[in-house]
Input
Amino acid sequence: MNAQTATRRHYLMCRPTYFTVAYAINPWMHPDDEAVDTERALAQWEALRRTYLDLGHDVSLIEPAPGLPDMVFAANGAVVVDGLAFGSRFRHIERLPEAVRYLEWFKAHGVEHGVRDAYLPLGIAEGEGDFLTTSTRILAGTGFRTEPGAHRELEEYVDREVVSLTLVDPRLYHLDTALAVLDEETIAYYPAAFAPESQRLLATLYPDAIHASEEDAMVLGLNAVSDGRNVVLPVQAAGLARQLEARGFEAVPVDVSEFRKSGGGPKCCTLEIRVGGGPERGSQP
Ligand code: ARG
Output
């Protein structure tokens, strides 16, 4: 078993100062019966940020805004590939105003971090929630949130192959709740979250993928953040952690249970800022 290699990452996060479950736009959210413990959410988020810093990564912060309780889910604010920030257009009206805040952040702070341009899509697109980047292609989810038209827009904008995958389980409504990119070639996913043709496509593209159990998928275990070696994932996903270790990854469990009340996990709270060209392009002449 070969040990995996980590590379230093740059993440954008948003402190959950105003986080709560105020509306229901996915099956996890029950605004009337399960109150969020904001203090606890803040502590869990702080521990997640600390975990990234301890792993040697950079973390930038965007200001949270009152009235936007889901803004903590930075992954939905954009997808940044090769120094190009492809912004978001949310499906639900409750989250619409977040998009401009993330886009403005990239316009104001992007350049200092190597982001050359920012783009507002025409179609519904929910950032890294539905767009997961590997060295060779971008995997794109549709079915609940992001529209196929936005997959094509992203393909145009970043000039990388975008592979569309259809999600079918409402509890796993964003691609990053059903699939995790672990290194440039390795992914983990829960097959039953995908339509049959997407399952076939994934089996062809990733014959060596880790298949997560239903039990691990249903604690949002696949909502994981990998640096190529260390995989930050919900502590409740014990089976998946063992599968990762067996493949040479280091499982780094975190408890973000307060965010699960909103249908979120560690990945949802984390937007990766990718400024280098993809490894497959190398240095252009
Ligand atoms: N309550 C949020 C929503 O339904 C959770 C977003 C989770 N984000 C993610 N990247 N999966 O939109």
Observations:
- DSSP finds seven helices and 15 strands in the chain.
- The longest strand covers residues 10-14.
- The chain has one domain: 10-278.
